[in-house]
Amino acid sequence: MLMDELLKGIKFAQPESHDPSMLIQGIQFNSRKIRPGDLFVAINGFSADGHRYINQAIANGAAAVVGEQNVNGLNVPYYQTSDSRKALARLASNFYGHPSKNHIMIGVTGTNGKTTTAYLLKHIIEQSGMTCSMIGTVNNMINNQAIQSKNTTPDPLELQSLLAESRDEVVIMEVSSHGIEQQRVEGILFDYTLFTNLGNDHLDYHESLEAYFNVKARLFKRMKSQGTAIIASHNEWGKKLQNKLSESGNNVLTFGKQSEDEMQLLNVCTEYFPTIKVRLGETTDFLQVPLPGMHNVWNTLGALLTVQKMGISLKKAASYLSTFNGVPGRFETFSHPAGATFIVDYAHTEDAIEYCYQTAERENAERIIHILGFRGKRDLSKRRDIVALCSDVCSQLILTFDDLNGVPSDRMVEELQKLNEDFADGSAEIIPDRTQAIQHAWEKAENGDWVFITGKGQETYKQSFKLPASTDKQTIQFLKTSKDMVTS
């Protein structure tokens, strides 16, 4: 692409050596990936400053460089900008020809429920006859092909490449707060933006719940002029966002319990796989929610209101849900020989874990047993609140590892011991090896127990554990097979 075409719509201090007809072969923000003729974008990241690698990028063949800092003496053009991250996203959009314009774009954000809502949307949309890509936490689905996901919201180069590769009519994106804050969705305008909820999470990154909310709210500035915001009004942050957007003249639809909501939940008739009574406009109907738990009632209503706005009738959309098979790592249930129920769930916030407990209690669980995993280098205040909640509810609490993230295992054990002493009154067991923690619960489980394994969901383990498994699901499958072998 010609340099002038690549730079369209981006503010730069233009160097004297600017050549509008320079041909740029590609864009990179990692100097090791540079090939001759590429543009290198220097970003001041969290672990390294890309400006330190400008000379390495040039040595690898970079034809030009973009950055924020004052840099002199380079033998290639240097374009200085105020925000390298924003510039990278816009450059990527220019380079790939603004591919989001070729799709109906749906962005889903919130602390919990993004993945489930995205899967529900994709299922309904595809059942209606449209083709659909999905970019998110579990994996990226492009042209009906699964591509491994590294982040909930990919970096701008990968994101724009995926959008350009997609030939699908609709693209659903899970949009994380990190993705918004780091400008990964710059250059994309959405037809529909959906807000699920907000709770304590990522406060090690955003510093406060208010700051976290303000970042989430920025996604709704990225709507097309005729775009629609779909907001869960049953939580205080949803109401706050609704008021904020309505004052700005945005098109806002809500779902919740109030009569003024476009989609109103009137009644929950049955609990585990809920049958619900809803009102949409002048129509009142009974619907079957395809997933257990009240949180999935809200996820389902958000998806239904969105597709209804897209032109899929409520009756048709509800009928499509009967063939929905669930979401990997989201409330996946497994039977136990003694009659217990094991659940693998990605839950890693207080709200998400409470949703799990509410479902177990509604199903009259004899005991709730929880294998609670923790990641290194994460928000300590969130850990405390979660352990306090779990110790109050659970008959048995087992603390274990999730991902160490570079934290030495002995230090992580010390952190778990302190959590146990300070917030569980020493009642929790600590079993650092995650697979052994699951095995311990498997061997002790009794009829009527509900055993939750949270934190990882469908994710693969990042360190080696004793049992030959790489996910929680594989660990359970190994234990089931081993038990079958013993009893056969």
Could you characterize what this model shows?
Pathway: Cell wall biogenesis; peptidoglycan biosynthesis. Its cofactor is Mg(2+). Catalyzes the addition of an amino acid to the nucleotide precursor UDP-N-acetylmuramoyl-L-alanyl-D-glutamate (UMAG) in the biosynthesis of bacterial cell-wall peptidoglycan. The protein is an alpha/beta fold and 488 residues long. Helix content is 35%, strand content 23%. It starts with a helix and ends with a helix.
What is shown here, in short?
Its cofactor is Mg(2+). With 488 residues, the chain is an alpha/beta fold. It has helices at residues 3-6, 54-59, 84-95, 114-127, 156-165, 177-181, 203-206, 209-218, 236-247, 294-309, 314-320, 350-362, 380-393, 409-423, 434-444, 472-487; strands at 26-28, 38-41, 64-67, 78-80, 104-109, 132-135, 139-142, 145-148, 170-174, 190-195, 223-232, 251-256, 263-270, 275-280, 283-288, 332-335, 341-345, 367-374, 396-401, 429-430, 449-454.
Helix and strand arrangement:
Blueprint: H1 3-6, E1 26-28, E2 38-41, H2 54-59, E3 64-67, E4 78-80, H3 84-95, E5 104-109, H4 114-127, E6 132-135, E7 139-142, E8 145-148, H5 156-165, E9 170-174, H6 177-181, E10 190-195, H7 203-206, H8 209-218, E11 223-232, H9 236-247, E12 251-256, E13 263-270, E14 275-280, E15 283-288, H10 294-309, H11 314-320, E16 332-335, E17 341-345, H12 350-362, E18 367-374, H13 380-393, E19 396-401, H14 409-423, E20 429-430, H15 434-444, E21 449-454, H16 472-487
Parallel strand pairs: 1-2, 2-3, 3-4, 5-9, 5-10, 6-9, 10-11, 11-12, 12-13, 17-21, 18-19, 18-21, 19-20
Antiparallel strand pairs: 7-8, 13-14, 14-15, 16-17
